[in-house]
Amino acid sequence: MKNIYFFLIIGFVLITSCTTEKKSTSKQIISVSIAPQKYFIKQLMGDTIEVNVMIPQGSDHASYAPSAAQIKKLSQSLAYIKMGHLGFEATWSDRITAASKEMKWFDLSKGIDMIQGEHHHHDHDHVCTGGIDPHTWTSPKEVKLIMHNLKSYLTELFPEHKEMIGTNYEQFISQVDEMDERLTLLQSEKPGLTFMIFHPAYTYLARAYNFEQITIEFEGKTPTPAKLKSTIELAKQKGIKTIYIQQEFDQSNAVVIANEIGAVTAQVNPLSDQWKSEMDRFITQLEKQ
């Protein structure tokens, strides 16, 4: 059904393009999967290009079907820069390719030591493929590699902006370094810091700074009563005071645990289009634990 829907949209876009005069645009289009990628590109390119985000925030990424407007921009895109290992990218890769045979492909996960584990298999989730955790953008250390890749890709696509990309890259990396320094200091002040979250969105951050991330969901599913009970006991043992939840997931179990252990809940948004401010906010919450 998704295939039929997708190709009908492509047909509509092509017919529309043939029967209407194309409007000239001064901006090239780059398509990406999620909002944080748009943020990263804007840090290097400013408003010199248009970034087409395929997956809107708050959408069900397992079943989301791109709109006609998105497909039109996709068909006009110079390149698709994928995050790497997102479920959407695996599911829609053939159909995205069909939208434009000339579109170049780039992968931001290149060179990153990806985390694999049974608990990353998600039957409903928007971001996991083959047991690989794709949340690389929530760790400053991995973001340095992401930005290195992105600088290389954008310079290849826009050699005329090489100097601007290089200058902006250095400025942004200095901000990421400051974030890294905060977390390194936190690691020394609170070794083995433990935090609890419904969905494991900060696995790379936990690995980078030797933190412990406890998740409420189990193997990508809502926990059973027995699993929920053991999670409550673990939260008590670890002295958890804050439980982090994402807006796209059910909050009921997090609230149950919070009530049982006298903790509070705090919302986080790893898919925010304001990456730095969201990361700063999360790190500040960790510093207060």
Element layout with pairings:
Elements: H1 2-19, E1 29-32, H2 35-45, E2 50-53, H3 68-75, E3 79-82, H4 87-99, E4 104-107, E5 115-116, E6 132-133, H5 140-157, H6 162-189, E7 194-197, H7 203-208, E8 212-215, H8 225-238, E9 242-246, H9 252-261, E10 264-268, H10 275-287
Parallel strand pairs: 1-2, 1-3, 3-4, 7-8, 7-9, 9-10
Antiparallel strand pairs: 5-6
Helix pairs in contact: 1-3, 2-5, 5-6, 6-10, 8-9
Q: What is the CATH third-level topology name of the largest domain?
A: Rossmann fold
Number of domains: 2
CATH superfamily of the largest domain: Nitrogenase molybdenum iron protein domain
Overall shape: it is globular
Report the count of strand segments. 10
Quick one: biggest sheet? 4 strands, parallel
Class from secondary-structure proportions: alpha/beta
